[in-house]
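Aim 2 progress update. The chain analyzed this quarter is reproduced below.
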Amino acid sequence: MRRRIALVVAGILFAGLAGAVPAIADDHDDDDGGTTLMILGDSVAAGTQQPEPFTRGFERKLFRELADEYDFEEVVNLACPGDDTTEMISATGGASPFGSLCYGPFAQLPPGGTSQLDAALDYLEANPGEVGLITLTIGANDILACDIGDPDVQICLAEQLGLIGTNLPYIVARLMVAAPGVPIIGTNYYNPNLAFWLVDPAIAEASQQLTPLFNGTLEAVYGAFGVPVADLAKAFKTFKEKGKPIPTNVKAVCRLTLMCEKSGASWVLSDYDPTTPGPQTDIHPSNKGYRKIANTILHVVEDLLDD
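Predicted structure tokens:
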């Protein structure tokens, strides 16, 4: 069944990529390039740590390194917690009945505006030549609309991957047209549900089976546009399944996200309740996890900007 779905999704992806915008240039002149970092995407890009929708996340370290090494002067973070690829394009669409939390008529969080993509395009138009790098972390909320415990999860997954295969090329193409020659770095995702191994290994295994197909879809789109991908799955050791008594990937997701808390020399699953203090189950990165993401993106930046 998974193979059939993969083939269907691949057909959707590459049909949608016909006539794609050419890949970004391989070289970047530091003297002539922009000095603003633009961050786009979902809650990981926004730096969410429940119950705070916005923190400095990976933005702080990434921008500091860009400022030190490449003379970047400003960061513009337009990411919105909860946005999926549909909501990023049209704030009133997507899985949520109210659309985007930050954009459109039902926005509950700043910055407001018609959609995240529109906000990015407006900024690029109003500030020509100022943006020197764009990072894009989007797609997780498309997949989170599927319940891995549902018998029909494979059907839901195929539908959501189809949406990514339609929406993500549109997003990337619009950005490339609005900011020709500006490097874009996409990211794939780690698997936070590995933490459920601590209470039910079957849940972790089910989620792990979906991860390569999800990340593969993202990587296929980015690759078709010549957009390099920061490999968060590798950075979070997502597929290092050996190790005792706790597998390496489970320990990594416990250290690098807020899904777990320490219990003696081991880990236990946290119990997320926004009304109580203390450790909470949260799929978002810990401070250490956000630093890991920043470092992973920086390795890609070095390849792009040092050429």
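Confidence is low (pLDDT under 50) at residues 1-31. The first strand starts at residue 36 and ends at 41. These observations will guide the mutagenesis experiments scheduled for the next reporting period.
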